[in-house]
Amino acid sequence: MKTLKLIGATALLLLSSQVSAITVGGVTWDPDSPLDFSSFSIAAHQNIDPTTGALSGWGIFTTMNGTDQATFCPGCELTFQFSGYTPIPGSPITVPTFGSTITYSGGIVQVFVDNTPEITNPADPTTLTAANTSDGTLWLDLVGHGNFLGTADANLQTLTGSGFLDVIGGLAQANFNTNTKSNGSDFSQTFSFTQLVNGDPKNANGTGNVASDSIAINAPEPVTLSLLGLGLLGFSTLRRKSV
Q1: Which residues neighbour 68 within 8 Å (Cβ) at sequence distance 6 or greater?
Q2: Which of 124, 136, 150, 236 has the most C-beta neighbours closer than 10 Å?
């Protein structure tokens, strides 16, 4: 009977240890991490339309919950594109000026997982393009929740922005549709652009971060099911012998 209990306990222990970290579309993270969910980009690029003032750009995620790309996306890359952030009607300016603040409405952010990585240096924003950050499979499809606030410092050397997002699609949609951020949103987002190309605020490189509270909802991986099956098989065999 002691052996019977040991096998059953071992099977449950193996099952619980296997499902802590989850994998969706090749991207692995731990929803139980103290950092969950935080994904950071050290290479992001932003363009500002000189006529409408709309924001757009792209980037690549380089860390996730404190792990590097080789850990959270082995053999793949996780990139993003954003567009459609438009100065609200009546805004006095559409392009940042010294010490200005602009409120934007709308906004679309799409995250792609690409299993044929082609970005040679994820730390260098000049290696990123509209093309190599939009290929692959749509991992998350996000839209703006409320307004996005953009500011420029008094010297027009740093552009920052912050806001919130709702998830509406993608492979990992169900893992992030939690409504736990401000006013029931799913993600918070922040950007900082400090490298103005040729001093032009309409063309800048910088960093970005998105944060959420994720949940594990995908089915156990095959290896987990196999381990559980072996444990239950042993449990069943011993039970028959004991009868």
Answers
A1: 62
A2: 150
pLDDT tens, 45-73? 999 999 999 999 999 999 999 999 999 99
List % helix, strand, coil for the chain (3-state, nearest 5): 25, 40, 35
Q: Per the domain annotation, does 4 fall within a domain?
A: no
The structural domain count of the chain equals: 1
Instruction: Provide the residue range defining the domain that includes 54.
Output: 31-217
Q: Whats the size of the chain, residue-wise?
A: 243
**Segment 29-43, tens digit of pLDDT:** 999 999 999 999 999
Which of 165, 153, 194 has the alpha carbon at shortest distance from 85?
A: 165
pTM: 0.82
Spell out a b/e string for 5-28, using b for 16 or more CB atoms within 10 Å of the CB, else e: eebeeebeebeeebbebbebbbbb
